[in-house]
Design a protein that fits this description.
about 600 residues, alpha+beta, Jelly Rolls, about 15% strand
Length: about 600
C-alpha cells in the first residue's frame, strides 16, 4: 500500500499569500451573486485584496473594513464566500460581534478553560508575535502556543492569519473538526487563502466528506493553478472500484485466455533488478505463493493499543512537516516512519512490526535492514490506486529502464484494525525488464477483506491497491490499517522515510513507550506464539474460478480491459481471503 505523500509547503504561510488571485474567479461568479450581499462584499473586498496586505509586521487598517463587510456577507449566507460549501464555523448569534463569536469558539474547547477569555482590550499582535507562537508549537510547547494564538485572535478577530494559525494549532493537535472550523473562519475573512482551502479540503477528505473535499480542491485550483495534486490524487483513488456490470458477455473469456498464453513464469523477487543478489531464504512456508493472510495475529491488548493510536499516526503524516521544522536535523516532510533493525521499539506500531517479523516471517531483526511503516485511515468508500511499493527518494529514482525506482521492500503487509472497508487487492503483475506492467493482464488476483486483527503479507514487488465499498458516497465510517514494509538490505531514503522523535510532537508524545514498556509488550506477544491455542491462524483461501463466482467487473482504474470480479455484497458477507483465477474461470465458461 502506497503511503500518502506529505506535501511540502512553507512553514510560515502568511509570508507567501501577498498577491490576491481573487479577481480570476470573481468575474465568472459575480453575475450569480447579483441582488445579494455577496455582490457588495465582492465590490469592496476585491480592491483591498489586489495589493500585498502583509507588510511591515502590522495589520493594515483596511482589514477592519473588510472584516465588517465579511460579517455582513456571512450573516446573509451560510456558505463560504463565493462557494456553495457550507461553513462549519459556528454562525454568529444575534447581535454578536466578531470578538464574541471567536471567544465562544475558544470557550467550546475544554482545553482552553485555563485561559483568560474575559472581555479586555488586547494589545496589537504582530507577525513577530505569530512567529513566536509558531516557534513554541514547533518546540512541542503546545500550551504556550495555544495561549499566544488565542491572544492573537482576540486581539484582531478579523485577522485571517491569526484565525488560520488557530486552525494549524488544532491540526498539530490532530483535532480535525476544530481545524476545519478555524479554517472556515479564515476563509470567511480571506476567501483566497490558499493554505486554508488546502487544509480544509484535506481534513474533509479524512473525515469522509468526499464531495466537500473534491469541491474544496477545485476551489483551490481556481486560486492556484499549480495546486492540482490533491484533487488528482482523490480522483485517482475514486477510479478504483467494482462495477456492477459483467464482463463475460463482452468477450472477457476470449481476451483472458489469449493474454494467458503470453504470460512468462513469474521471476523471483529482487530488491533491485540492476543489482541482483541471491534469493533470501524463505522462513515462512505459507508464503511460497507470494501471499498469505492470518487472523488473530496480535494480543487483544496490543490490538486495542493500535486502535487507540492509529488516528494520530495517520495525521502525523501531514503534521510532521509543520512541527519539526525548528529542528535543524529535520530533512523535510516525512510520509513514512523507519524502524532500523539495530534499534528497539519505541511505539506500539513498532512492537507490532517486530512481532510480525519474528513470529510470522520467522526472521531475526538482524537479518534485515529495517521496517518502514505508516497508518492509513480513510473513508470505506474511497479506494487506493494501484501502485508498487518503492524507495521514493532514492538517488537512482530516474533510472532509465524502470521509469521510476527499482528499489523494493521484500515483503509488504496490511494489518487491519476493524472489519470495515473494501478488500486489499494484489495482482499477479509486476514491474520488470519487460515493462512497468508485466503481464498486461494479470493471470491471478488476491483479495483480502478487512477483519480486526487480520494480517495479509505479500511480495512487495506485486501491483496492489484497495477497493471501496460503495462508489462516490460520503461516509464517516473508516477503513483503518497499519502498513508494514520489510526491507532486506536497502534503507529507504529521507525525507520520505525517517525515524523522527515522537517526543517532540504534541499529539504523538503520549504514544511513546519506554524501553521497559516495549519489552513487556513484546514478551506478551512472544508468549502467545509459544501457545498454539492462542496464536495466529492462516485464513482459509477461497478460490474463485467459475464464471458464476465473478458476475461483476473492474479495470482497477488502469487495465486496458475489465476483468470479471465477485460482487462487493458477497465479499462483505463472507470476509475471507480469495484467489481469483481468471484463466480457469474463462476455461470453465467455455466448457
Amino acid at each position: 500500500m502506497q503511503p500518502l505523500r506529505a506535501v511540502d509547503v512553507q512553514t510560515q504561510p502568511w509570508n507567501t499569500l501577498g498577491t490576491c488571485v481573487f479577481e480570476k474567479q470573481r468575474d465568472s461568479r459575480i453575475k450569480t451573486a447579483q441582488g445579494t450581499s455577496v455582490l457588495k462584499w465582492a465590490s469592496v473586498a476585491s480592491p483591498l485584496f489586489a495589493s500585498t496586505w502583509r507588510s511591515g509586521g502590522r495589520r493594515p487598517v483596511t482589514r477592519q473594513l473588510r472584516g465588517a463587510v465579511v460579517k455582513d456577507a456571512v450573516a446573509a449566507v451560510e456558505c463560504l464566500p463565493f462557494s456553495e460549501l457550507p461553513s462549519t464555523a459556528p454562525p454568529p448569534l444575534e447581535n454578536e460581534g466578531a470578538a464574541d463569536r471567536v471567544r465562544r469558539m475558544i470557550a467550546a474547547d475544554p482545553c482552553n478553560e485555563v485561559l483568560d477569555l474575559t472581555d479586555r482590550q488586547e494589545p496589537p499582535f504582530s507577525d513577530e508575535d505569530l512567529r513566536e507562537a509558531w516557534h513554541e508549537l514547533q518546540l512541542g510547547n503546545a500550551d504556550e502556543a495555544r495561549s499566544l494564538f488565542v491572544r492573537a485572535v482576540l486581539a484582531d478577530p478579523s485577522d485571517s492569519e491569526a484565525l488560520f494559525c488557530m486552525g494549524l494549532l488544532y491540526e498539530a493537535l490532530h483535532d480535525l473538526r476544530r481545524t476545519v472550523e478555524w479554517m472556515d473562519m479564515a476563509i470567511e475573512e480571506c476567501p483566497d487563502h490558499v493554505f486554508a482551502w488546502e487544509t480544509r479540503s484535506r481534513c474533509m477528505e479524512h473525515l469522509g466528506r468526499l464531495a466537500e473535499s473534491l469541491a474544496g480542491y477545485e476551489q483551490l485550483e481556481m486560486l492556484d493553478e499549480s495546486a492540482t495534486g490533491r484533487r488528482e490524487g482523490l480522483l485517482g483513488h475514486q477510479r478504483v472500484y467494482i462495477l456492477p456490470v459483467g464482463a463475460w458477455e463482452d468477450g472477457a473469456a476470449g481476451y483472458i485466455q489469449k493474454a494467458a498464453k503470453k504470460i512468462p513464469p513469474r521471476p523471483q523477487w529482487q530488491e533491485n533488478f540492476m543489482f541482483a543478489e541471491p534469493q533470501p531464504d524463505l522462513r515462512q512456508p505459507a508464503l511460497e505463493s507470494g501471499i498469505m493472510a492470518w487472523d488473530n495475529v496480535l494480543s487483544k491488548d496490543l490490538l486495542q493499543r493500535l486502535q487507540d493510536c492509529v488516528e494520530d499516526h495517520f495525521q502525523f503524516i501531514f503534521t510532521n512537516r509543520w512541527v519539526y521544522e525548528a529542528d535543524d536535523a529535520f530533512e523535510g516532510a516525512a510520509s513514512t516512519m523507519w524502524l532500523p533493525s539495530s534499534e528497539d521499539a519505541r511505539s506500539v506500531p513498532e512492537v507490532a512490526a517486530l512481532t510480525i517479523l519474528r513470529h510470522i516471517l520467522n526472521q531475526d531483526p538482524a537479518e534485515i535492514a529495517g521496517v518502514e511503516y505508516w497508518a492509513r485511515v480513510r473513508s470505506v468508500n474511497l479506494g487506493a490506486g494501484f501502485h508498487y511499493d518503492e524507495a521514493v527518494d532514492a538517488d537512482d529514482a530516474n533510472s532509465e529502464w524502470v521509469h521510476g525506482n527499482p528499489w523494493r521492500p521484500q515483503w509488504s503487509s496490511v494489518f487491519y484494525l476493524t472489519d470495515e472497508g473494501g478488500p486489499t487487492v494484489v495482482l499477479d503483475q509486476l514491474h520488470d525488464h519487460h515493462g512497468r506492467l508485466a503481464p498486461t493482464l494479470p493471470r491471478k488476483g488476491y483479495l483480502c477483506m478487512p477483519r480486526a486483527n487480520r494480517l495479509v503479507l505479500f511480495r512487495a514487488d506485486l501491483h496492489h491497491g484497495s477497493l471501496p465499498v460503495d462508489i462516490w458516497l460520503d461516509s464517516e465510517q473508516t477503513r483503518r490499517v497499519f502498513v508494514f514494509n520489510f526491507w532486506h538490505r536497502h534503507v529507504p531514503e529521507p525525507p520520505h522515510c525517517q525515524r523522527l522523535n515522537l517526543q517532540q510532537h504534541p499529539a504523538m508524545r503520549r504514544h511513546v513507550l519506554t524501553s521497559d514498556e516495549a519489552a513487556a509488550l513484546q514478551a506478551v506477544e512472544s508468549s502467545r506464539f509459544e501457545d498454539d491455542r492462542d496464536g495466529p491462524s492462516p485464513v482459509r483461501q477461497k478460490v474463485l474460478s467459475r464464471p458464476e463466482d465473478l458476475p461483476h467487473s473492474s479495470d482497477f482504474g488502469y487495465l486496458p480491459r475489465p476483468l470479471p470480479m465477485p460482487t462487493m455484497a458477497a465479499l462483505k458477507e463472507e470476509r475471507l481471503f480469495y484467489e481469483v483465477d481468471w484463466p480457469a474461470a474463462a476455461q470453465a465458461g467455455r466448457e
